[in-house]
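TEACHING EXERCISE
Course module: macromolecular assemblies
Task: Read the component lines below, then compare them to the predicted structure of the full complex.
Student: A.B.
Group: 4
Components provided:
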Amino acid sequence: MKQLSNRTVVFYVLAAVCIVLLVLSSSGRLAPVEGVFTTVARPFLVAFNGLGRQINNVFTTARDLATLRSRNQQLQAQVDTLIIDNLRLKEVGSENERLRELLRFRQLNPTYDFRGGQVIARVISGGTSNYLATIAIDLGAEHGIQAGMPVVTERGLVGRIYKVGPSTSTVLLITDPSSGVQALVKRNRAVGVVTGQAGAQPVMDFVPQDADISVGDEIITSGLGGNFPKNLVIGQVVSVHQRDYEMFQQATIRPTVNFDRLEFVLVITNFQPLPGQPAEPESVG
Amino acid sequence: MPERTGPSATGIKRNLSNLSLTLTVVALAVLLQATLLTRVRVLGVSPDLLLVAVVAWSLLHGATEGLIWGFIGGLGLDLVAGMPLGTSSLALMAICFLAGLGTNSVFAGNLLLPIFLAGLATPVHGWIILLSAQLRGLRVDWIASTVRVIGPGILLNAALMVLVYPALRGLATRVGAQQMEW
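Instructor-supplied answer key:
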C-alpha cells in the first residue's frame, strides 16, 4: 500500500512538472534551455546519425557480398578488402553527387540566398515519435536561420523551419498533417492546398470541382499566403478523388523529395514569410 | 526504541549509481531512437524503443522507477524531436501504470506479459500524444493516425520487446531487480 502511494505521489509530482513544462515550452519561454540542450546533444546526434548511415551501408555491402561470392569465389579475399575501400569511396562519391545537385539547384535559382545544412536527426511520421514529421538540421540562429524559412532540396520543397535553436533547427516537413502549403497545378494553374496525412501521402485539397487535374500533373507552390516562394516543386499527382456532392476535389500527391533519404537540405534565407504567419505548425482545414 | 538514522553512505552511493545508470541508458535509448531506429521502417512506422524500455523497466524494477525513466526519456525525446517539453513524458509516464498492473499479475513470470503490455501501451501512448497535439490547437486525424500509425506500431513494439526485455532483464539483475522470473 505504501509503495502504491509513493508511486502515485511521484506520478502526480512529475505529471505536474510535465504540464508546467508543456505550457512554458508551447509559449516559447523555454527556448533558451532547449537551445542549450540541442547544442550539447548536437555532436552526439551527428555521431549516431553517421553510425546509422554506416550500418545501413554495411547491410547494403553484405547484400552485395553475397552476390560477389557466388560469382567470384576465388577472388573473395581480395573483394573483401576492396569492398571496404570501395564503401568509403562510394560514400564520398555519393555525398559529392548530392552536393553537386544542390549546387546546381542554387545556380538555377540565383534570386535566393541559401544556407546548406546536414540532417542530424529525423522524426518522420512513421519515425521516431510517429506523430510528428520533422527533421533536425545543423543550422540555427547562429547561422541566420529564422522560423518560417523554407527548406528545399534540388528535388523540391521539404518544409519550413518552425523551431530554431542556437546551432540547430527543426524543420516541419510538408508530409506532417499540420502542414499546409498553398499550391497549384503547373499545367493549368488550378489552385489548392497540399496537406500532409498521417501515415499516407499528402493530398492537394480545396481544388475547385471544375478544375482540370489529372494523374501525372506536376504540383508547385503558388506563393499565395506568403508562406513559401512561388514555383518550388512539391510533387506529382498519383490519383484524383472527385465526388459530385462535394464542393472540392482532392488529389493524392507523391512528393518529389524522398523524405526517408534526406541528408542535405538548403534553407532559403532571404525569403521572409508574411507577418502574422504562425511560428508553430498551423491548423488547416 | 532504535534510533532513526538517515540513509547510509552505501545507500547514497547505490542511489547515485542507479541514477547515473538510468541517465546513461535513457540517453542512449533517446539517441538510438532519434537516429538509428528511424531507418527501420516496417509498415510505414518505426518501433518505439523508449516506450518498450519504459514498459520493460517498469515490470522489472517497479512502476516508480519506470515513471522516472519515462519522465527523463520523454524530456530527451521532446528536445530532440522539437516537440513541446513534457508531451512524451506525460505519455510515457501514463503507460508505467499499465506496466505496474502487470507486476502484480499472476502472469508476471511469463515473457508474453511484457509483449502484451508493449502492445497495450502503444495506443495509450499514441492517443495521449495526439490529445496533447489537439489541445495545442493542431489538426489531428484520430482515425488515420490510429489505423496507419498506432496499429502497425502495436505489432512492431511487441516484436521489439522480445529483444529489449531480456537485455534489460540482464541489466536489472546487475542492479538488483524487484522480480524477474519468467
